[in-house]
User: Fold these one by one.
Assistant:
Number 1:
Amino acid sequence: MNRMVDDQESTAPQALGQRRSVRPRRVDATDQAILTALSRDARQSVSSIAEQLHLSRANTYERIARLRSSGVLRGYTAVIDPRAAGLETAAYVFVTLKQDDWEVLRRALADDPAVRHLALVGGQYDAVLLVRTSTVEELRRVIFERIQSLNCVQATQTALIFDDHTQQVHMSPDDDGP
C-alpha cells in the first residue's frame, strides 16, 4: 500500500488549535462516492456503503481507512442545532492583530468552547471568530475578558447574529474533491 502521509501522523479528528501537515492524495471516483455516502449519513455501516456502491466490504473498509490515515476523512460528527442546544446568542468577532500574531491567537482560543470557528482572513481584519454562548452576558464576558484581554489583539469589532442558517455540506459526485 502506498502511504501518502508520515507514519507519525494521527488519524484522530483535529481540535481547533491543532494543525496537521498532510500531503495531498488523489481522490478517485470510488473514494468520492464513499465520501458522498458518508457525508449524507456517517452512521451507516461499511457493509451498507459497500452495498450501495457495489463494492466488496473489504475494499470499502480499506478505502475508508486510507481516507482517514491520509487526512482526507478527518472524523465523524453530529450536526447540532446551536439554539436548540442552548447557545442562543451568537456573534462574529472581527479581530485586528498585532504583527504576525495569528498563531498566538489560534493557540490562545483553541480550547475556548464559545469560539466555534476561527479563521485567518485577508482584508480589513486579520481574523474572524464565530462565538456562540447561552446569554448576552456570557458573550460580553468572552469578548471583553477573554478575547480583548489577549496581548496579541489590537482591536475587535462585533456583529451580533440575529438569525442564521447553516447549510449542510454534502459532497457530491460532481465535486472536484478536497
Note: Residues 83-161 form a domain with the Alpha-Beta Plaits fold (CATH 3.30.70.920).
Number 2:
Amino acid sequence: MKLFRKIRRGLLLKGKFGNYLKYAMGEIILVVIGILIALSINNWNEQRKENNKRQDYYHQLLDDLNRDLKFTNSIINEFENYNQNYLNNLENYADKNVTLDKLYDILIKLKITSSALTFNSSTMESLLNSGDIGLIDPVLRNKLIDLKRLQELTIKRFDFTNEGKNQIVQNASLIMGSPQMQEKLKEQSQLQSLKMKNNMSKLILALEATHRWKYLSQIEAVDRLKLMQTELSDIIKIINKKVKK
C-alpha cells in the first residue's frame, strides 16, 4: 500500500494526471477482482460446508432407514406368524367333541400382546426442526416427508386398534383373575363362586374377541408395513446414489 501511495503521489507531482487516472482505474479493477475472488472463495467454502453437512445427514438417514427396514421385517414376521396360528386354531371349532377347557387351552396359548411400533425418526426430526431439510434434494425430501406421514399414520391406527383389544383383555382379567389366584383356590371349596370354571363361557368369549381384534389389527398393520418397506427401499436406493464413497 505504501508503494501504491508513493506511485500515485509521484504521478500527481509530475502533473501526469492522465496517467494517474489510468493507474487509479487499474487499482480499482484490482480491488474489485480481489473482492470477487474473496467472495468466490467464501461461497466455495460455504458450499463445501453445506455438502459436508448434507453428506452427514445422508449417512444418518441411511442408518435410520436401514434399521427401520430391519424392524419392519421383524414385525411383519411376528404378526404373520401369529395370524397364521390364529387361523389354524379356528379349525378346532369344527370339532364336535371340543370342550370349553380345550378351547380355553387353545386361546390362552396364543400370545395376547403385540410388539409396539416404533420407527427411527431422529434424523428427520432434526432436519425439520433445524430447517436443514432444505439441504436435501427436493424429490428425496418429499419422499422422506411422505414416509414420515405413513409411519405416523401406521402407529396411530395400530395404537387405536390395540387400545380396543386392551379393553377386552381388561374385561377378561376381571373374569379370570390372575393365574396365581386360581392356583390358590384349588383347595378352597367355600370359594367356588370365584373359581374360573364358573365363568368359563364368558372367559372364552372374551379371549376369542381379544384374539379376533388382534388378528384384524395386525392384518391392517402388515399391509401398511409392507407399503412402508417399499418406500424405505426406494429411499435407501436414492440416498446410496448421492452418498460419496
Note: Helices lie at 2-13, 17-90, 100-109, 122-130, 138-176, 179-184, 200-242.
Number 3:
Amino acid sequence: MWTRLLTPRWVLLHLLVAALFVATFFLGFWQLGKAEDGGGAVNWSYALQWPLYGFMGLWFYVRMVREELHRDPDEDEPGNAVVLYQRPRIDTSGDPELAAYNAYLAELNERALGQRGPGGR
C-alpha cells in the first residue's frame, strides 16, 4: 500500500513539498527581519502569513496522500469502465433513400469504432 508513494513521481512530489515547506519558514524569517528593521505592518503580516502558507500546503498534501492511499489502484486500468454501446437501429419502413443513408452512417460508425474493416467486412 505504501509502495505507491515510492514511485519516482511521488518521491519528487515529497521532495518538492518538503523544500517548499522549509522555504516558507525562511521567507517568514526574512519578513520578520524586515519588520523588525521598521518595515511596518505589512511586513509583520507577511512574517505570519508565510508559515501559514507552509502549513496550509502541507495540509493539502497530506490530504492528497491519504486519498492516494485509499484509492483503488485498479480503477485506472483500461477495461474496467463499463462502455454502453448499442448498435443504431436502421429504420427501413420509411423512405428507402433515408434507410440507405442511415445504413451508410451505421457503417461509418462501426468503422470508426474499429468493429468492421473497410468494405463492410
Note: Residues 21 and 29 are 13 Å apart (CA to CA).
